Amino acid sequence: MSLIEIKGLKKSFGALDILRGVDLQLDAGMTAIIGRSGSGKSTLLRCLNGLERIDAGSIRIDRHQITPTQSDLKSLRADVGIVFQGYNLFPHMTVEKNITLAPMLVKGTPRAQAQDKALHVLSQVGLLEKARAYPGQLSGGQQQRVAIARALALNPKVILFDEVTSALDPELTGEVLKVMESLSSEGMTQILVTHEMNFARRAARTLVFMHQGKVWEHGPTAELFARPQTKELDSFLSSIV
Ligand SMILES: Nc1ncnc2c1ncn2[C@@H]1O[C@H](COP(=O)(O)OP(=O)(O)O)[C@@H](O)[C@H]1O
Ligand SMILES: [Mg+2]
Which of 48, 70, 78, 143 is the one with CA 20 to 30 A from 7? Predict the structure, then answer.
């Protein structure tokens, strides 16, 4: 059984049909979602952790079931983390405080245990020495790594990343991608929407190409790059490399 099963997923905003019947099964490991702007990539990620209510179909992530009428958001979000382009860190709290907040509030983790975990996840993203710093004292790449650490602190089964490097300079992009690659080698399941084609090609086991609100093609990354089956993927790939 796959870790994630999406069936007939539909989502509209008013008269705009954004997801028009998404069917997809994903296994553990790293998946990259690519496609033109407006193809529904962000909306799909947001549906996967309950930030958007779905109009039709169903999503199962591990033991969590999402339908138009049913979802247990609290338990879903404990298992499915999301990291956005803007890091959304609280500027008036230290890095450590930013990280311990959700485990203490959402899971009732005792402070000492949450602090131990914060130091552990900070070392996973290479920022142990920044525990006492404030977000404003960090570079964009470091802030994004803290945002990843914050997601890790809840012990998620899956982390979703929506264009997390799009606002960063190339050097800072590299350090964030390196963190994602190292999480991958530790067995973390990650689903990322990205324009970093070289990274996707190297690091993602599975590639999903979204087009006009549907999964147009998906499969092993190397195969899709080598032999796109549709002219839409073919022209998308040639437009960006
Ligand atoms: N909350 C919303 N309300 C209205 N329209 C939205 C909302 N969120 C997304 N959209 C529209 O849905 C379309 C697809 O969005 P999105 O999923 O963000 O695509 P992508 O991430 O592939 O660029 C966009 O044209 C956007 O304007
Ligand atoms: Mg988007």
Answer: 78
Bridge partners of 218, per DSSP, are: 208
Residue indicated by tokens 């997801």: 19
Strands of the sheet with 206-211, listed across from one edge: 80-83, 158-162, 189-193, 30-35, 206-211, 214-220
What is the predicted pLDDT for the residue at 74? 86
Amino acid at 49: N
**Which pLDDT belongs to residue 181?**
95
**How far, in Å, from the CA of 75 to the mean position of ligand 1?**
26
Against a cut of 0.90, is the pTM above it?
Answer: yes
- Report which ligand 1 atom has the smallest distance to the Cα of 44: 17
Task: Give the number of other Cβ atoms within 10 Å of residue 46's Cβ.
Answer: 18
Q: Is 65 left (phi over 0), alpha (psi -120 to 50) or beta?
A: beta
Q: Hey, where are the domains in the chain?
A: 4-240
Compute the distance between CA of residue 109 and CA of residue 154 in angstroms, rounded to an integer. Answer: 10
CA of 36, closest atom in ligand 1: 22
> Distance from the CA of 91 to the center of ligand 1, in angstroms?
28
Question: Is 3.10.20.30 the CATH number for 4-240?
Answer: no
CB 155, CB 148: distance < 8 Å: no
Question: 37 CA to middle of ligand 1, Å?
Answer: 9
